[in-house]
Amino acid sequence: MTHAEQYSTSVPRVPSAPRRSPRNRVFCRANTGLQNRHRLRGVLTASRPASAGSISDDKAQAAAIAAKIQATQAQIATLSGQVQAADYQLTQLNSQIAANQAQVVKDQAEVTKDQGQLRTQAISDYTNSGSSSNQVTQMFSSNMNTSAARSVYASIATGNVTTTIDNLHTAQNQLQAAQSALQQQQAQATTTRNTLQSSETQASALAAQDQAALNSVNADIQNQIKAQQAAAQLAATTAFNAKVAAAQKAQAAAQTGGVGRGAGSSSGSGVSSVPTAPPPPVPAGVGGAIQAAESQIGTPYVWGGSSPGGFDCSGLVMWSFGQAGIGLPRTSGAQYAATTHIPLADIQPGDLLFYGPGGSEHVAIYIGGGTMVEAPYTGATVWNTGVRTGDGFVGVGRVG
To answer: Exactly one of 38, 313, 341, 361 is catalytic; which is it?
Structure first.
């Protein structure tokens, strides 16, 4: 067995389960088991050691980078919270400083007002020539007996103003001390905030660098996977074309020797027996069915899906042929039963390829050149791929 043939016989299948009638299977069974085995085994054996190791190393590197990014993002979140707290503290300090400054201005205005009122009152009382009963006025008369009283009043007036001014100075000194303390706290808080902001910026830059590195590693992984898939598809296509050519050669030899058409058509392949009569012609409209199926490349696999929003294997086949005006049953087993089984040597574009007992596990549409279009498994999308004629392949069915 060549490496290519080993690939061609590596179609993934679901784990063994109790067999049921194909007609009772609701949808194709190409799901979890098919998905896992296709991913693990659907590559060339010869290319696996180096490429698989490289991909494994890249995935380990990607995981390490992702973990580093996660830790850095947690650090950024912590720093961001600390910056917000520092901003709030600065806002509070600035509000207190502004309030203190406003209070200083207010106190200064009040004292200035009081000082002016006292002086005005003193002058008014001194110059007032009203009633002689006004004892305050009498203190400012020319009577020598009142000179002592004038002196006392003047002292009192001056003392009141002086006391008020002294109180103002005391209050101002206290406010200035508080203001100085607040400004010092403000400076410290600003320094702390700027340091935190700088750390957050540096962490964000590191996270961006790590993300760029992760993107690069992931892109490399994808490129390697695509290269493996391309090599696997080429090998599968080559193997299938060789197998068809061998089957056609054997068929021609059998016909020349007078042996029936079915002779040698399934030897060693596990393919179900086929009629010896010539196969029916490919029905008109098959080209439209192939075109419809290929128009859905990239559509996600959805178990039970039978519309452009998502397809499973038999849903894609039924929908595609329906677009060409050809009706088919819903399940792969029923589709297998509804088609004419033909030798591999007679395969033509538009014929269906079946897998699993009675075609119950999977179905795809042959599009020519050793390639088929299929909805493979959950997590994948509709694609073109090389025909698999190994593990689980049961035969070709022609519509019509």
So the answer is: 313
